[in-house]
Amino acid sequence: ETNKTFTMIKPDAVANQHIGAILNKITQAGFKIVALKYTSLSPELAGKFYAVHAERPFYKDLCSFMSSGPIVAAILEKDDAVASFRKLIGATNPAQAEEGTIRKEFAESIEKNAVHGSDSDENAQIEGNFFFSAFERF
Ligand code: CMP
């Protein structure tokens, strides 16, 4: 589907009390919340979620960071959702993120970058299925 994407509010942004502000920006930008969950990833689950990055030098740190505290997972709906959401969150490295983006406002570093956004329609579907059953989508 081209009208869905998947996001997580990462442990840094949850710990910094930004859940409400980030969800507000997302809904203000016209995304509908299809599914929403406050949860956490074990190191094993983080490793599975980020398996595509297994060969990257930052993989181990990323998995320990992503399992360091609670997260918010969500499926979002909007036309051209993947690209539109990536524009809203800004560059992976907050130092390069544009003014007004979620990462510019809330991210701490390239690793602790506040939010995840799927990079393709295919991954949006895989990532949404990782967290949500059919009964948890509206
Ligand atoms: P995201 O794009 O959501 O998924 C992969 C994550 O890996 C990315 O966000 C960052 O949190 C992290 N990441 C990407 N590149 C680097 C890097 N060069 N150093 C550390 N962490 C990174």
Automatic annotation (TrEMBL):
Its main location: cytoplasm. GO terms for biological process: CTP biosynthetic process; GTP biosynthetic process; UTP biosynthetic process. Pfam families: NDK. ATP binds at residues 10, 58, 86, 92, 103, 113. It comes from Mucilaginibacter arboris. This is Nucleoside diphosphate kinase. The gene is ndk. It is found in: Cytoplasm. Keywords: ATP-binding, Cytoplasm, Kinase, Magnesium, Metal-binding, Nucleotide metabolism, Nucleotide-binding, Phosphoprotein, Transferase. Residues 2-136 form the Nucleoside diphosphate kinase-like domain.
